[in-house]
From TrEMBL:
This is THUMP domain-containing protein 1. The lineage of its organism: Eukaryota, Metazoa, Chordata, Craniata, Vertebrata. Belongs to the THUMPD1 family. Functions as a tRNA-binding adapter to mediate NAT10-dependent tRNA acetylation modifying cytidine to N4-acetylcytidine (ac4C). It comes from the Eukaryota. Residues 1-107 form the THUMP domain. InterPro entries: THUMP_dom, THUMPD1-like. GO terms for molecular function: RNA binding. Residues 123-207 are annotated as: Disordered. The keyword Nucleus does not apply.
């Protein structure tokens, strides 16, 4: 399918390669992986690798711990085995489904799009489809506010109502603010008189 770019399946989305199974417990996985990984990584064999982990319907396994233990086993088989996350020679696929651990060793895992049959048939030369709303990026421009107001007459009316039409409206608004300031300043002496009268009454009471 990768070579011909012809889709031959309708309902199969992704293939899950399984070379062996064991119980989904760390000790069982370590014991099984020591013999399972020997044909590819035990000296004199060597190569670059990555570990792909996926868990389904399982909550007692820790992803980081599993990857760390399996990588240590590969390193113990041959010190020349190196980790390569971009273009590895081998990919150790770990699939945990409930209480079962499925292990497999595959090549060209990233080249074959993680065995996703829908992606394998796509050509690398096919350009990505642009977003229908954005287009090629040149058409997505902001219009000036004047044009926006012309397109929406209701917004234009609202904007015109905010600005006064003549100076008479401005003069009508000024006396209100000035009268408020005068009233506030005029209230200060009355409050001062009340405070002095209250203090005098308190002195008389103490006397």
């Amino acid at each position: 399918m990768y070579k011909t770019k012809k889709k031959k399946t309708r309902v199969i989305l992704q293939m899950l390669p399984i070379s062996g199974t064991c119980k989904a417990f760390l000790e069982d996985m370590k014991k099984y992986a020591e013999t399972f990984l020997e044909p590819w990584f035990k000296a004199p064999n060597k190569g670059t690798f990555q570990i792909v982990y996926k868990s389904r319907n399982n909550s007692h396994m820790n992803r980081e711990e599993v990857i760390k233990e399996l990588a240590a086993i590969v390193g113990s088989l041959n010190s020349e085995n190196k980790v390569d996350l971009t273009n590895p020679q081998y990919t150790v696929v770990v699939e945990i489904i409930k209480a079962v651990c499925c292990l497999s060793m595959v090549k060209d895992y990233m080249l074959f799009r993680k065995y996703n049959l829908q992606e394998v048939v796509k050509s690398a030369k096919d350009p990505p489809q642009p977003h229908p709303k954005l287009g090629n990026g040149k058409e997505a421009k902001l219009e000036p506010e004047a044009k926006l107001n012309q397109n929406d007459p209701s917004e234009g009316k609202n904007n015109q109502q905010v600005v006064p039409e003549n100076n008479e409206e401005l003069e009508q608004t000024k006396p209100k603010s000035e009268s408020q300031v005068v009233n506030e300043e005029g209230a200060k002496p009355e409050l001062a008189d009340q405070v002095t009268e209250g203090s005098k009454s308190n002195e008389n009471d103490h006397s």
